[in-house]
Design brief:
The complex is a heterodimer of chains A (301) and B (218).
Chain A: H1 2-12, E1 30-31, H2 40-63, H3 66-88, H4 91-94, H5 105-125, H6 132-154, H7 167-189, H8 193-222, H9 226-236, H10 241-262, H11 270-294, E2 296-297
Antiparallel strand pairs in A: 1-2
Helix pairs in contact in A: 2-3, 2-6, 2-7, 3-5, 5-6, 6-7, 7-8, 7-11, 8-10, 10-11
Chain B: E1 4-9, H1 18-27, E2 36-43, E3 50-57, H2 65-69, E4 75-77, E5 83-85, H3 95-99, E6 105-108, H4 110-114, H5 125-133, E7 140-143, H6 148-156, H7 170-174, E8 180-184, H8 191-198, E9 214-217
Parallel strand pairs in B: 1-9
Antiparallel strand pairs in B: 1-8, 2-3, 4-5, 6-7
Classes of the chains: A mainly alpha (301), B alpha+beta (218).
């Protein structure tokens, strides 16, 4: 009998929250689950993939480094695109977004990715692809793709933690920071030690801006309003605190900071750069996860 | 063209859950899916605490956050003010679901479809009939539609929504204390408009600027 009751409860009130008892609905700050739990995890990974691919492409433009833009293009389109489709579940329906670019950030994002795919292909395949005009256009497109995920979240007024003014700068710098680390690693693997060593100066700058943006996001959102503060409390003291302190703080900030200090003089080391790249990737994933997972709705009264 | 809206008198509501059940019957909603909820809570501290009973449903906002977020135009505001979802256009991105400040939408997937009212015993005849009579498309978002089919059918017969049962939402018809009043918000002489004016009707979460068509009076 107990099994049957358990079964019933599981069916009626599943963990995704859709089955919450109707009289408990939105009485307290309610977490958003659709874009982070279950299939929502694909969206988290999709935004991340598009960001790192576009970040790598963006940084490669400054060095006119063809392998970098090819890899960035592939990560953005193949990895990011595939994961987006996995989230949507039905690729034969997704094309409808293209038809309505005036409706939302999501459909505008699809257009931007489409233009990026087309122009990026021309840049990769043509000999004169790295002229200043082309680079400028592709740079803008990369920045739009890097910020696409967070812009989509940023326009959602119902979730104050996502509407924070620091979300956009944070997404831009995290994309550039991750992209620069990927490019530096590619230089090391390609035997361009001098270029990799030269990029170490930028690593310090990008890391410092990234650190400031993370701190400003936490501080700014905490002081924005009561519900936004609730999200930060969940990150710092609630169920996401371990991911925040270990993932974002320890792996994403402390380890890269230590490795930057170790390589301060520009004496880069391939293994340490690889370690830093992994730490930066994990840290960025953790940051995105905590921001997406901690967003809560204001109670109805 | 009228703009349909609802006034809910929270003083009259006795939290009988009649609206919740009538809605589930009308649309054959699977277990765990509610287009109408009764929200019970408290505000303030003793001795000035107050118990609140709020029946809630989709607010059919005229500046709806879900419409803004929809990338395909599947969610749209009809000329009569009802916020509807065209399941042929919906791609299941759930942007509308995330952006709704009232959280009144449900993603209809296989898990929801497979739910049974009596787990492990198969679907009842009622549930099976419901799947045929009122089918939902998998991988789309579903929500309250102010019983627009009833409204349209009733109006074809010359009935008036809000006055005649066959042209009014199921939750309005079932309410035993007439706590729900349905009518045309654009008509200054309609019962809903007069109640909103006289009793200073309030909208939920007005600060989001969504302009809900559901008003609360007490």
């Amino acid at each position: 009998m107990k099994d049957k009751i358990d079964d019933l409860e599981k069916n009626m009130f599943p963990s995704d929250g859709t089955g919450l008892k109707p009289y408990e609905w939105m009485v307290r700050p309610t977490a958003q689950t659709q874009w982070i739990d279950d299939k929502g995890l694909f969206l988290w990974l999709a935004f991340f993939s598009s960001e790192i691919g576009a970040g790598l492409y963006f940084m490669s433009l400054f060095h006119e480094y063809r392998p970098g833009i090819i890899l960035g293009w592939l990560i953005t389109l193949i990895l990011g695109g595939t994961i987006h489709v996995l989230y949507l579940g039905n690729p034969f329906r997704a094309w409808r977004m293209i038809m309505k670019p005036n409706t939302s950030e999501l459909s505008r994002g699809v257009w931007i990715i489409g233009i990026f795919a087309l122009l990026g292909f021309f840049q990769m395949t043509s000999q004169g692809g790295f002229n200043i005009v082309f680079n400028f256009i592709m740079g803008i497109l990369c920045l739009l793709i890097i910020s696409h995920g967070f812009v989509t979240m940023n326009v959602i007024r119902a979730l104050p933690a996502w509407s924070s003014t620091m979300v956009l700068p944070l997404s831009l710098i995290s994309g550039i920071w991750v992209g620069s680390q990927l490019l530096q690693m590619m230089f090391v693997m390609g035997g361009s030690g001098v270029l990799a060593s030269g990029m170490e100066v930028w690593a310090k700058v990008f890391f410092l801006i990234y650190l400031i943006c993370v701190l400003l996001y936490v501080w700014g959102t905490y002081h924005a309003d009561k519900i936004a503060k609730e999200s930060i409390v969940i990150q710092l003291k609630g169920k996401l605190s371990q991911i925040f302190y270990i993932g974002v703080g320890g792996v994403g900030l402390v380890i890269p900071a230590l490795l930057i200090l170790i390589m301060w003089e520009g004496n880069i080391n391939g293994f340490l750069l690889f370690l830093r790249l992994i730490a930066v990737l994990v840290g960025d994933l953790a940051l995105r996860y905590t921001i997406m997972k901690s967003a809560v709705y204001k109670p109805l009264f | 063209m009228p703009r349909w809206g609802m006034v809910i008198d929270v003083k009259r509501c006795i939290a009988c859950w009649g609206c919740t059940i009538a809605c589930k019957e009308e649309h054959f909603l699977p277990p765990g899916v509610f287009w109408n909820r009764i929200l019970i809570g408290e505000t303030g501290k003793f001795p000035s605490s107050r118990k609140l009973i709020y029946p809630i449903l989709c607010n059919h906002c005229s500046d709806a956050a879900c419409v803004e977020a929809c990338p395909t135009g599947a969610t749209y505001v009809r000329v009569d003010g009802i916020v509807a979802v065209d399941d042929k256009k919906c791609v299941g991105c759930r942007a509308c679901l995330v952006s709704c400040p009232y959280q009144q939408r449900t993603y209809y997937d296989q898990t929801v479809k497979d739910r049974e009212y009596f787990p492990g015993q198969g679907k009842t005849a009622m549930e099976l009939i419901g799947e045929k009579l009122y089918p939902f498309k998998l991988g789309t978002v579903i929500k309250c539609n102010f019983c627009m089919e009833r409204l349209e059918e009733g109006m074809k017969k010359g009935l008036v929504p809000g006055r005649d049962e066959d042209a009014s939402p199921a939750c309005v018809n079932i309410c035993p204390v007439n706590a729900r009043i349905f009518g045309d918000l654009d008509d200054p002489d309609s019962v809903v408009s007069r109640l909103i004016m006289e009793k200073k009707g309030k909208q939920l979460k007005k600060e989001f600027g969504t302009e809900p068509a559901v008003y609360y009076i007490d």
